[in-house]
Amino acid sequence: MNANEARGHMITPEIAAAGRLTVYDLFRSQASRAPHAVAVAEGERSIAYGALDARVRRLASALHARGIRRGDRIAVLSQNRTEYIEIELAAALIGAIVACQNWRLTAPELKGCLDLVEPSLIFVSERFAALLSSAGARQAPTVVIESDYEALVTSSSETPPSVAVDPEDGLVILYTSGTTGLPKGALISHRAEIARMALLRLDLRITEEEGFVAWAPMFHMASNDQMMGTLMSGATVFVVDGLDAPAIVDIAARNRIGWLLMMPGSIEPFVELWRNGAPRPLGVTVIGAMADLVPRALIAEATRYCGAPYLNSFGSTETGLAPASAALLEPGVVPASLSKRKSALCDIRLVDAEGRDVPDGDAGDCAVSGPSVFSGYWNAPETNARDFAGGWFRLGDLFRRNPDGSYDFVDRAKYMIKSGGENIYPAEIEGVLLADARVTEAVVVRRADARWGEVPVAFVARSDPSLDEAEIEALCRRSLAGYKRPKEVRFIEFAAFPRSTTGKIQRHEMEARLRGE
Known about the structure:
Blueprint: H1 3-6, H2 13-18, H3 23-33, E1 38-42, E2 45-48, H4 49-65, E3 73-77, H5 82-94, E4 97-100, H6 107-117, E5 121-124, H7 129-135, E6 142-144, H8 145-154, E7 170-175, E8 185-189, H9 190-203, E9 211-214, H10 221-233, E10 237-239, H11 245-254, E11 256-260, H12 267-275, E12 283-287, H13 296-306, E13 310-312, E14 315-316, E15 320-323, E16 327-329, E17 347-351, E18 364-369, H14 381-387, E19 393-401, E20 407-412, E21 417-419, E22 422-424, H15 426-434, E23 439-449, E24 453-462, H16 469-477, E25 488-491, H17 507-514
Parallel strand pairs: 1-10, 3-4, 3-5, 4-7, 5-6, 9-10, 9-11, 11-12, 24-25
Antiparallel strand pairs: 1-2, 7-8, 13-16, 14-15, 17-18, 18-19, 19-20, 21-22, 23-24
C-alpha cells in the first residue's frame, strides 16, 4: 500500500498510464514539431527528424516481426554511426533494451558481456564481425549492418505495433569499466535518460539550437546519454567515428554546439589545432569533462580558445552527469579550486562504512538518489543489494563537503594507499602535480614496502624536460605531508599512460608496470 492508498486514494492503472512518457515519445514529438530539421549528420550524410522517425518505425516493425518483445535484449557491436542511433530509438518504441558492446574488449571479455545479457538479436558492423565470431558467445541471430541492415529497414511496415512502454523499463545497458573481474551491465531506464537530458538544460543551460558531437564511443555514456538527450530536445547529433580532432574542430567551427566533449587525454589534439590557426568554435556553451584529471594550465588554454567555461564534472555511468557536475570553470583562467557543485535533480549524502552521515570536512562515500540514477546492474542481485542499501546508490567515490556546500573529490574508496597506518589518497597528490604547468599528465599508484606496507609512486609526463625528481619533491613538499609525498617518480611519455574509454588512467595497469609485469 502506498501513501495515497492509505489516505483513501487509489492510483488506478489508468491514472498511472496518464503519467507515462518515454524516450521515443519525446523524440517523436520533435519529429512532429520540426520534421525537416536535421536530426543526425554523419560526414556528408544527414537525415531530418521526419525521415529518421520513419526509418525508426520501420526498424521497430522489423524487430517485432523477428520476435523482439518488451524487455528483450538487442546487442550492438559497432563503431559510431547513424544506424546505432536508429537501433536505440526503435528499441525505445517497442520496449526492448539495447546492450551496447565495447569493441575494445578481448574476445573472452566480450563473450562474458554478451552471455550476461543473453541477447535475442545482435547487430554487428563488418569492422567487428571477426571479434564477435571469436568471442564464441551464446548463439543469437546476427545482422551485419553493412550488408543486412538497409533491407531490414526498407522492407518493413512504417506502422509498428503498439507497445505500452513504461518509463521504468530499461532502454540501454552500458557496461562499467571495472579494474577487476568482468564489466557489470548498468541498466538505464527511459526515466533516467529523460532526467539526464534535463540535467543538460538545468545545469549547463544547453538549448534546442545547440547540437552535440558524438565522437566518444556510443557504448559509453559520454556519447549515449547525450545523443539521446539531443534528439529528445530537437537539436542535431553530429556523428564522428572516434577522436578525429580535425573533423570535430571543423564541425564546431560551422555549427553551434552545446557541450563540446573533451575527455582527459584527448584535449591536446584540439588545442594543438587551435594553436596552429584552426578556426575557433562558432559558439560553444561548455567544453571538457572531469577537470580533476586534466592539467590546470591546459584547462585555461582550451577554454580561452573556445571562449567557453570548462565543465567541472563528476558523474558516472550509473548516475549520468549527477551527482556533482553543476560547477563551471571560468574561461582562460587557471582554476584555483576544483570544488564541485551538486547537480540538479539529485540528492547527496556522504556516509561512512556503516551508512552514517559524516560531518563536513571528513571523507565519506558519496551516496546518491534522484531520477537520473540507473536501475541496477543486470543480473547482479547481491551487488545491487549492497550498493543500493537504504534506498541510496553508493558510488564508491570519496568526497568531502565544504562549509559553503561545495564538494571536493578525494579518491576512489577502493583505491587507497595504506602507509604506516596512514591513509593516502592518490588524487590529492595528483592534484598537486597537475597544478604545475610543466606536468602534462600524472598518476600515483601504490608500491609494496617492507617498512611502511605501501608507499606512493608517481608516474609523470612533462612538457619541460628539465623538470626532475628533485623539483617534483620540492613541489610536493610545499603542499603535502611527508608521508604523502611520492617515494619514487618515474617520467614517461604522455602516450604511454593506459586509459579507459572515459580517458581515466588505469591504475592497475600502472601497478603492473611498476612490478615489471
